[in-house]
Write a structure and sequence with these properties.
By secondary structure, this protein is mainly alpha-helical. It is built from 6 helices and no strands. It is 62% helix and 0% strand. The chain has a domain of 135 residues. Belongs to the RER1 family. It is found in: Membrane. One of its GO terms (cellular component) is Golgi membrane. It is a multi-pass membrane protein.
C-alpha cells in the first residue's frame, strides 16, 4: 500500500515544481515590465491586433468579441473612477477637493494602470484562445451587437463624464507640474546691491 502512495506523490512533485518555477518566472518578467508602460501598451496593442485579425479571418466569434468589449468597458470605468467615490462618501465628507480652499488630495484610481493593463491583456489572450473552439462561435447578427455596444459605451461614458464634472476631478495627469515664480529684477540682471 505504501508503494502506491509513493508513486502518486512522486508523479505530482515534478508537476508542482514545474508549475512553481513557471509562476516564479512569469512573476519575474511581469515585475520587470512594470516601469515600461509604453512597451507594455504596445504589446497589448499587438495582441489586440492579432485577435482582431483572427476574428476577421474566421468571420465569427462575435459574441466573444462583444463580451470582451463589455469587459474592457467595465475595466475602463474602474480606471477612470476614484478609489473612494465622493457620491457614496457624502456623509463622511467628500474625498476629492471641491473648492480651492480644500486640502489637496491626489487622484487615486479604483483600478491602477498596471492592473488595468494586465486585465486587458489577459482578456485579449483568453478571447483569442476561445476562438479556437467552435463551441463559442454562436451565430448572431453582429451589427446589432456592435450598435448595442456603442450605445452602452456612449451612455456609460456620459454618466462617467458627468460624475467627473460634478465632483471636479480629472483622472489624467500629464507629466510633472512645473511652477515658475517671478524673479526680482535685481537678481535677474546679475547686479548686486551693496
Amino acid at each position: 500500500m505504501e508503494g502506491v502512495g509513493d508513486d502518486a506523490a512522486s508523479a505530482v512533485a515534478p508537476l508542482a515544481k514545474w508549475r512553481n518555477d513557471f509562476a516564479r518566472a512569469f512573476q519575474y518578467y511581469l515585475d520587470r515590465s512594470t516601469p515600461h508602460p509604453v512597451q507594455r501598451w504596445l504589446g497589448t496593442l499587438l495582441v489586440a491586433a492579432i485577435y482582431v485579425l483572427r476574428v476577421f479571418y474566421v468571420q465569427g466569434f462575435y459574441v466573444v468579441s462583444y463580451g470582451l468589449g463589455i469587459y474592457i468597458l467595465n475595466l475602463l470605468i474602474g480606471f477612470l473612477s476614484p478609489k473612494v467615490d465622493p457620491e457614496l462618501d457624502v456623509l463622511e465628507g467628500a474625498s476629492l477637493p471641491t473648492k480651492g480652499s480644500d486640502e489637496f488630495r491626489p487622484f487615486i484610481r479604483r483600478l491602477p494602470e498596471f492592473k488595468f493593463w494586465y486585465a486587458i491583456t489577459k482578456a485579449f489572450c483568453i478571447a483569442f484562445f476561445m476562438t479556437f473552439f467552435s463551441l463559442f462561435d454562436v451565430p448572431v447578427f453582429w451589427p446589432i451587437l456592435l450598435c448595442y455596444w456603442i450605445v452602452l459605451f456612449v451612455l456609460t461614458m456620459k454618466r462617467q463624464i458627468m460624475h467627473m464634472i460634478k465632483y471636479k476631478y480629472i483622472p489624467f495627469s500629464i507629466g510633472k507640474q512645473r511652477y515658475s515664480g517671478k524673479r526680482s529684477s535685481a537678481s535677474s540682471s546679475g547686479v548686486s546691491r551693496d
